[in-house]
Amino acid sequence: MKDSLRKAHRLFKDNLPSAGATVEELRVGVEAMFALLPVANDLVTEKVDIDGLEGEWQILPESAEDRVLLYLHGGGFMYGSINSYRIESSEMGRAAKARVLSINYRLAPEHPFPAPIEDALKAYDWLLNQGYQPQNIIIGGVSAGGNLTAALLMHIRDTKSPMPAGGVMVSPWIDLGQTGDTYITKEGVDPVVTKEALVQLADNYLNGVSPNVPYASPIYGDLRGLPPIYVMVGESELMLRESLTFVAQAALAGVDIRFRSWPSMFHNWLSFYSSLEEAKDAIISTGNFMNELYEKNQRA
Length: 300
Description:
- The chain has a single domain (about 5-300), classed as Rossmann fold, CATH 3.40.50.
- Helices cover about 40% and strands about 15% of the residues.
- It contains nine helices and eight strands.
- It has helices at about 5-15, 25-35, 85-95, 115-130, 145-160, 180-185, 195-205, 240-250, 275-300; strands at about 45-50, 55-60, 65-70, 100-105, 135-140, 165-170, 230-235, 255-260.
- It has an eight-stranded mixed sheet, with helices on both faces.
- Strand 1 and strand 2 (about 55-60) form a beta hairpin.
- It is globular.
- Keywords: Hydrolase.
- This is Alpha/beta hydrolase.
């Protein structure tokens, strides 16, 4: 294992709260861990009140006024924030030459399913009401945020709202029943998550709702009519199988689905943009996809 990858593994192993931590201890510990990762010094942030929902504009010198990435952070629906995922969201925005709107959606167990989806929808509707054109908006997220990306796209389609240009799903957690074989074969390989922890996170979020409900686990959803989607996953991830399943089902549903996997990469490796070449490569890859969509719609 190369040194940069070993250091990334060690950061998680040395700083993730223990299994017996309380919800508050877990949240504080995760924030402290991600605070160890540097954010670019040319990033400008601006707090936004989205009808009571906390949001943040992230603007870089490359950001075009009319391009928006609506970013949905990860954290198993129970922790994580604008702050802890800022390095990843802002660099994805830089690569796409877009402004980023990142939000602090409500978290479980205080606010279980479907509260985070409702907040993501509120942010999307707010963007439309601010005058941003749907063809210039891309929705993206990591882990639980990848789940919310797919759920939000399905909800937009189902309610016949204006469809955004596309979606980006990084290390998506989209099977809350943990049925894939990689939950067994990758256990202990991925330094970030364990099946035991994910089962508890899913229980907190679902609050008695079946994990087979499509808005909760998008691999069970009808994917017809969704816009282009890019799915990215590390080959060391417990969640590898559900990404493969989702991509196959999206292709059969006629979705313009793109997919790429990264050898040896762990869950949400993009957070290590500052030190891991594979993270930089992945960020550039998301930018290429998003730029393609923005430019295509600009020509249309």
